[in-house]
Each structure stands twice: as C-alpha cells, then as structure tokens.
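Re: the request from the purification team.
They wanted to know what the chain is likely to look like in 3D before they choose a buffer screen. I agreed to run a prediction and write the result into the notebook, where they can find it.
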Amino acid sequence: MDTFETEEALRELTHSDAKVTCIGPAGEKLNLLAGIFTDGYEARSAARCGLGAVMGSKKLKAIAVYGTGKPFVYDEPGLRRYVKDLMPDFTSGTKRLREKGTPSLVTMQEDVGSFPIKNFQIDSFKDRVENISWERMKETIFVKSVNCASCPVSCGRLVQVKSEKYRGKEVSAGPEYETIGMLGSNLFIDDLDAVQFANEKCNRSGIDTIETGGLIGFATEAFDRKIIGLGDTGGISLKWGDPDLALSIIDSILDNKGFGKVISLGFNKLFKLWGEETKSFDPQVKGLSFPANDQRAYNSVAVGFATSNRGACHLQAFSHVFERSVIMPEIGIYEPMDPFSYKEKGEKVALIQNLMCLFDSFSLCKFVLFGGIKVKNMAEMLSLVTGWEFDSQELIKTGERIFNLKRLFNNRCGILKGDDTLPERFLVQAKTDSEAKGNIPPLDRMLKDYYKFRMWDERGIPEKKKLKELGIRK
C-alpha cells in the first residue's frame, strides 16, 4: 500500500482518530531515497537520509497510535497562561506562513538569488517563476490550509489539480517551497500541475522530493556534458524542462528499475560510476542533496551546509533567516546579519546550529522563530512542564553538546575536515543576476573562524578541552 492507503487502512483497524506514521512501497524496497510519512494525504514527512529504508529493513510498515491518557504537566494552568501571553506576538509574526505557506517564498528566493534553476547553473527564472508561485497556486489549485498537530500556524496547503493530464487524488498535500524548487525550476519546469503530480507520486510512494529533484538535475547536467550517455541512462535522452520525462524517471525510481534504480543509489555511488569530474557540479555535501537554497545568496548557508552533520541541510542551521529578519540576543544576534559579509559568520553559524539542535530536541518547528520564540521562552516552558529549573545558558550549552556528539559519531565514521566543503561551482562561479550578483562565499576564511570557535583541531575533531567543558567522555 502507498502512504495514503496505509493510513486509511490502519485507522479502520484501530481508531478513526489514530495517528499513523508509515513507509510506502519505496521503503519496502529499501530505496535509499525513502522517508517516513505521517498524516496520510496531508503528507508530512521525515524524508531525508533514507529513514524509510531503515524501517523497511526491519520489516516495519507503520506505527499507529491512539492515546486515552493525559501527559503529566507540572503546572498546567501556569503553562496555559504563559502560552496565552505569547500568542499575540506569535500569531502576528507567523501571519505570512499562515496565509500563504512556504510557496510564498518562491518569488522572494528567486529575487535574492537563492532559487535553484537548472541544477543551480543559471541565475534567473524571472520570466517563468510566476508560473510556480504561491499566487499561481492560489488562483488554480489551492483548496485550504492545514496544520501539523495542534499547530496554530497552519502553513500546509491542500490542493486539487483540475487538469486531466496531471490529476491525482482529489485533494492532497500541495508542494512546499523545497519541492517546487527541486522538482520545478531545478529541472527547468514551470508547470505547477506537473510539479504537484510529481509531488503526490513521491508522497504516495514515500520518497524525498528534495533528493529526487537533486539527483535528476545532476544526472541531466551530466548527460548535457556528455559525461554519461544513452548507455548509462537505459536509452533515455535526458533534457531540461520536460515534465513528462521527469515524471517517467520518478516512476522508474519508485519501481526501483532501470535508470531510476541507478540514480536512487545516491550521489556518493554515482561519483564512482560516472567519474570524479562530476563533483565540480554536484549539488551535495556529504552525499546529501542541496535543498532549494543557493549558498551564494547567503554566506552563512555556505558554512552551515559544509559543516552540517547530515550533509547539505537548510534545517541544521537555518541561518539564512537570521540574515533576513530573525534576531536572537541570547546568542549574540541583535540585528539581522549581512548575507554577504564573512565577519563572525563562522562563530554565528556554530551558535545557530547549537540552537537548532535544541529546537529538534524540543520537537519545535523552526518556524516558531518568526513568532518571536526565544531560548528564554523554551527554558520557562520546560520548567513549567517538568517542575525542574532551567535557564537559557544551560539549554544553549545542551545544544552545543548535542552538535558535538553528532560530530564525534561522524568522526568515527571517517568524516573529517576534508568533508566540510562545497562543490566547486559554488566556490568559484559568482551569480550574475539577482541581489546576490557577484558574490562568492569565502568558505575557507569562514571555516577557519568556525573551527577556532568550535575548538575543533586541524582534522575537524573536537578537542579534549572542549569535550571536558561539555561533559563528554570520549
């Protein structure tokens, strides 16, 4: 069963209000692009790094939960009062996401030069970006907004495609910003109905839309450059801007056959198959595809991608929002940073990464940053829930401990300083259009500051002094 069918079946077997998390056929086939999906046709996912294949390897299809108890809260009335006081500012700060969702980022990101176009080769999609924008979605396929469990933001979109050619389920989750970028402009496609059809295919089968778009774009450029040919693609002539071709490749990925089976191996194995020269234009770090964010538009993102413990990931640092509007006085960010400056970027990215580890441990969406939530609020809410006393600095240190523990694990797996880098394209080829015109992130300089601040040695391993400070025994 696909992920939509699985939720429906398990709710029938258990309880109509049960929450279901599951894998689709891709996870059952141990496809390395497979993720874990929740909320059925609303399609929320933990889709990166092949987690769906992990479930599949354990013969685990799904988990269904329905609770009748109530979680313990030390001071529930106090917690309710505290949250109520936060809500006016929170509601105001998240208004854009509530009204327009992440698709509203499409035109803005194209303006600043962070939108992926043709495997990040070209710098403008201005004549076509409106075709895959939030405004076009609202005019044509938008049905209503939806939220993750109890979230007041409701940034999710449900959509319905009316064209016969690309019609899927009557109503299902619409494409988020990352999906629009990676399965749309990244493949030089500007047909919103086709992007949504591809999105639904991926959601149903249970694969990561970011990695799927990244790998197809990478393969298409390799074909363009004649690094690979028809013998490598199973006779498929790869080309840009053809939604039906992209959909057929996605089908072959989902079937785990032909060329789809090849590119499902992921970047690291494709290098060995297609040659080291492909590394100059591969949109990945540590084997994980770039999301729909170009580091040349935000210097902090270059550091964040290069040092992220799981590879290229916008959520490990989420630093670009601190280069536009978000501040965090508790970690020394008193005003939005200049996206094209290198000063203190290494230090600031490390601090933001620590903060994001904290957010992940709290199971807090990064979007609450726009609602003004600070570490102080997190500490006070945690104290109200548990009855234990927490302060901001203690939590920030906890985030730093978590990040360094992840790094130590990676060190044991052989990941060292040489892996903290970016593809050549993003270090030598400046943007020629947009607000990012002429910018090349000075990665080496920022990394030097980052390592010094982190107290990592020349190999990229946390120093003993830092481990002792964090209470980590190696």
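For the purification team: The beta strands are 19-22, 36-38, 44-46, 62-65, 142-146, 156-159, 172-173, 284-285, 288-289.
Please add any questions underneath this entry.
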